[in-house]
UniProtKB/TrEMBL annotation:
Alphabetical list of Pfam families matching this protein: Creatinase_N, Peptidase_M24
SUPFAM superfamilies recorded: Creatinase/aminopeptidase, Creatinase/prolidase N-terminal domain
Main enzyme class: hydrolase
Stated name of the protein: Aminopeptidase P family protein
Coiled coil: none
Organism for this UniProt entry: Streptomyces chlorus
Keywords: Aminopeptidase, Hydrolase, Protease
Signal peptide limits: none
EC number: 3.4.11.9
Domain Creatinase N-terminal intervals: 8-138
Domain Peptidase M24: residue ranges: 146-348
GO MF annotation list: aminopeptidase activity
Length: 368
């Protein structure tokens, strides 16, 4: 992986040099990990004029190779306690002869920005913007492999839960059990807080699990994700508990399923992000559910669970191959229930079989 990290840093350095900066300071944790590998909490990365540094508040742990930072990087430990690695990195840049430093202004606090200016007043601070985030959009096959394994873990955890008795158990209990199963099957942990919504709670988008117990005839809406070697995937499914689904449940489910399929089939290289959103949204809109729709149909995933690109009506730009995204339309009816179907896929050209579905748990409306 050292060669991969080095190549990523070279691409960022070229971007910064084109903007007139001889050095760059990366502080956003996901970006540090992308460029340097798994780093200690609080570490920052300095791309210096002559040498790159991983600046840490303490020495990296003695961990296995896959969970250690790039060993070709020089590690600088901030002396004492309470020192700011970002400020120390700026000092290293100035000492190394840099006259300008590109920083992630969207991540720096005002306090930290002021500290940088006060410690190295002669260093011109520029904005690197979202350059690293843009580099992260297209994944290499190693990254996609991590997402694929995470999806397999999430599928396995969900499948095992569906084989158990659900009636009478609380949303909170089910969510905790799912997260435990993720870890049992090899995940670093959940990719985000697991959502379990039953009955009328399924009509609330973004519902957090409560002590409500599962009842016969409920919609059960579950959304979970696994983190594997830092990469995060997502899956969401909706089921009916105990009895044959009611007519209104079948109708609503079939509608969301049709919308989700339309979104998935639109995932081709070169497709406009907003067109993918439109493909799924118009199915639900034409059925009269415009007011119950989410603000976006999907988003990118990777080292964070919500990355670019955003599949929303106002998003500009087009999809590239090897970009993993979610497609997750839903309709939520307050006080009654709702349906959400959520998959993680990788954009692939038609010659390679079209979009690669990573989350494969059945999308059939099961009565559990």
């Amino acid at each position: 992986m050292s060669e991969v990290y080095a190549l990523r840093r070279t691409r960022l350095r070229e971007c910064c040099n084109a903007g007139g900066s001889a050095a760059a300071l990366v502080t956003r944790p996901a970006n540090v990990r992308y460029l340097a590998g798994p780093a200690p909490e609080g570490a920052v990365l300095l791309l210096g004029p002559a040498e790159d540094f991983l600046v840490c508040p303490g020495l990296p742990d003695d961990r296995p190779g896959q969970t250690r930072p790039d060993e070709t990087l020089r590690v600088h430990v901030v002396p004492g306690t309470g020192g700011d690695p970002a400020v120390a990195a700026a000092g290293l840049a100035a000492t190394g002869g840099a006259d300008s430093l590109a920083v992630e202004e969207h991540h720096l606090t005002v306090t930290r920005h002021r500290a940088l200016r006060s410690v190295v007043p002669g260093l011109r601070l520029a904005n690197v913007g979202g350059a690293v985030e843009q580099l992260r959009v297209v994944k290499d096959e190693e990254e996609i492999s991590c997402l694929r394994i995470g999806a397999e873990i999430a599928d396995q955890a969900l499948g095992e839960l569906l084989e158990s008795i659900l009636v009478g158990r609380t949303e909170r209990h089910l969510a905790l059990e799912l997260e435990r199963r993720l870890v049992d099957h090899g995940a670093d942990g959940p990719a985000f807080a697991t959502s379990v919504a039953t009955g009328p709670n399924a009509g609330r988008p973004g519902h957090r699990p409560t002590d409500r117990r599962v009842e016969e005839g409920d919609f059960l809406s579950v959304c979970l994700g696994a983190t594997y070697l830092g990469y995060r995937c997502e899956i969401g499914r909706t089921f009916v508990i105990g009895t044959a689904p009611a007519d209104w449940q079948i109708e609503l489910y079939d509608l969301v399923f049709t919308a989700q399929r339309a979104g998935r089939e639109s995932l081709v290289p070169g497709a406009a992000c907003r067109d993918v959103d439109r493909a799924a949204r118009q199915v639900l809109d034409s059925a009269g559910y415009a007011a119950a729709l989410p603000t976006l149909i999907g988003h990118g995933v990777g080292l964070e669970i919500d990355e670019d690109p955003q599949l929303s009506p106002g998003t500009m730009g087009k999809l590239d191959a090897c970009v993993p995204v979610t497609v997750e339309p839903g309709v939520h009816l307050p006080g009654r229930g709702g349906v959400r179907i959520d998959d993680t896929l990788v954009v692939r050209p038609e010659a390679d079989g079209g979009p690669e579905l990573l989350t494969i748990t059945t999308k059939e409306l099961l009565a559990l």
